[in-house]
Amino acid sequence: MTETITGEVIHVVPPEDLDDYELDPDLQSLAEARYVLVCRKGGRPSWVERIVAFLRRTPIEPVTLVADRPAEEGDDVTARVESTGVTGVYDVVEFR
Question: pLDDT below 70 — which residues of the chain?
């Protein structure tokens, strides 16, 4: 089953740097020769949204996307994804 996720890329791990990080073994096998994109789910919040989240003590919800193509930190991405066996990790089917 696929779903669409929109998020702001906050960190990118290129395939050649995967060994430099202590990744979960399941994530490591999913990401082999692919990019790992750590994103803030929902995209870049406005200042008002940040203040409201702080006052409500609502944390930023991170998601990890495993993709065939790179993205830059700070980019907003929208992707059709499939969930994986790892909580919070999604396999990108298509970028939109």
Answer: none
Nearest-angstrom CA–CA distance, 5 and 80: 6
Q: What are 19's two structure tokens?
A: 């060994």
**pTM (predicted TM-score):** 0.86
Helix ranges, 1-96 (H): 25-31, 47-56
Report the candidate in 83, 89, 71 with the shortest Cα–Cα distance to residue 2.
83
| Alpha carbon distance 32, 54 (integer Å) | 36
Name residue, tokens 């970028």: 95
φ/ψ of residue 32, rounded to 5: -50, 115
Residue 53 is predicted with a pLDDT of 83
Q: Hey, which bits of the chain come out as E strands?
A: 2-13, 35-41, 62-67, 76-83, 89-95
The predicted pLDDT at position 10 comes to 94
Residue 61 is predicted with a pLDDT of 84
